[in-house]
Amino acid sequence: MSVSGRSTTPARREADHPAPARRRAYAPRLALVAAASAALLTGAASPGLAAPAAPASGEAVRYVALGDSYSSGLGIPRQTDPACGRSDRNYASLVAQEAGAASFTDVTCAGADTTHMAGPQGSAAPQLDALRPDTTLVTLGVGGNDLDLAGVITRCVLVGYLAPHGSPCKTSFTLFGTDEIGSRINATAPKIDAVLDQIRARSPRARVLLVGYPSLLPDDGSSCRATIPLADGDFRWVRDEEKRLDAMLAQRAGAYGAEYVDTYGPSVGHDACTAEGVRWIEPADSDEGAGFHPNATGHRSMADAVLAALGR
């Protein structure tokens, strides 16, 4: 299948060691295929931690950006680190510029999950190694890859061809009364806790913002099978699962004295089903960005949400 004149490739689990010189589905993404496929994107109670004191007015902003491909700007020109799918127009770069950061370290990397915060990702060093005791601002965008939703969406596309008007993917993941994706989200919560805990230990003075995922599919649950070949009913299900992921991230941010940045709300009406020029999420690989990832306008919106949280 071809979308917007561009052929697509089968989805697969995002690699820990990204290969340069080619675009891949590193963090949650959807690549639509002739034979099917896509990739999507992105607990136990923990003792709450007090938020650090806000940096004094006029204090230099020393900013570190952590996260996956929804933070790195996969596919958006200009790619400054093709191995990690990092763009100089991602939301972190925009925030650093507009906040007047005295120092800025962007280690976001496509394909990253919570294990790559404290551990290496191929040749990339652990992202937490970028933190310093004098860091005053940290943004973190992670969690989608921990759910392994690439395989979920691949299955959704395949079963969508067999039952295009039902919700076969939802059915396949809720057999015997067990919500498999909900269980994965619950299992990811303590991993987010651990990352937030380590950020606080390494940068105790930093203001920590946990950035959620934007609206990928229509918020009203409508379908656009001509663009994204899910079964009609599975559009609503995938929407709901993304909202559950974001809700978990917001909860964990609150429990750990961090701040949650909602990027879903501002992006409603700009999902992958909308027209070119309106959408902030690309439905397939294009010159504007990677498939099922925010384009430059989407990152502009995400930056605005972060800056608003910072009071800028």
Description:
This protein is α/β, with parallel strands linked by helices and 312 residues long. The chain has helices at residues 69-72, 91-98, 115-118, 149-162, 168-172, 180-202, 232-255, 264-267, 296-309; strands at residues 2-3, 6-7, 62-67, 79-81, 86-87, 103-106, 137-141, 207-211, 259-261. A hairpin with a 2-residue loop joins strand 1 (2-3) and strand 2 (6-7). Helix 2 crosses helix 9 (296-309) and helix 6 (180-202) packs parallel to helix 7.
Instruction: Give the integer mean of the pLDDT values.
Output: 85
Strand order within the widest beta sheet? 6-3-7-8-9
- From the N-terminal CA to the C-terminal CA, the straight-line distance is 44 Å
User: Count of helical segments?
Assistant: 9
Overall structural class, as computed from helix and strand content, comes to: alpha/beta
How many E strands?
9
- Unreliable stretches: 1-48
Q: How helix-rich are the residues, as a percent range?
A: 25-40%
Secondary-structure element pattern, one letter each: EEEHEEHEHEHHHEHEHH
Radius of gyration: 18 Å
% residues in beta strands: 5-15%
Major pleated sheet: 5 strands, parallel
Write down the overall geometry: globular
